[in-house]
């Protein structure tokens, strides 16, 4: 691992330590520590780097983050996906009264969950909900489980450095952190 990569890991360790404090690791998962590498984690847990990359949708096998929870086997990864889906469904039931007012020229919209998330981020940032709905429509088409091979995920397509995206509420917090740190630059606006 290069010094630059080590510095990147240490720089985000503090941010992710706060962002992932509520993430529960299963018996078949591992929480990345500062200085860890995928190859060392794989060797210590009798698996391969390729398997860890596949199970955890890791875009860059040379870049992992302190505090990141890695699933070590298929059963654990499936349980994590089921828990995230259940949490998403629970939030969706609470957001059915929200309606998206933004529809992009390609038909993308934030949907009701996205409209809810946009309203929450608008309240925290002072930027209009319609602006946040536009970002959600553009980035994920309102899909709370959207994932990009670059590592971005969720409604707002935030990167892991901004925090957990396993629930809609976590995605809202990640978007707020990204906005507070980078403004709209986090979304290329």
TrEMBL record:
This is LysM domain-containing protein. Keywords: Glycosidase, Hydrolase, Signal. It comes from Streptococcus hyointestinalis. Residues 1-24 form the signal peptide. Its EC number is 3.2.-.-. Coiled coil: none annotated. It holds the Pfam family SLT. Transmembrane segments: none annotated. Residues 28-72 form the LysM domain.
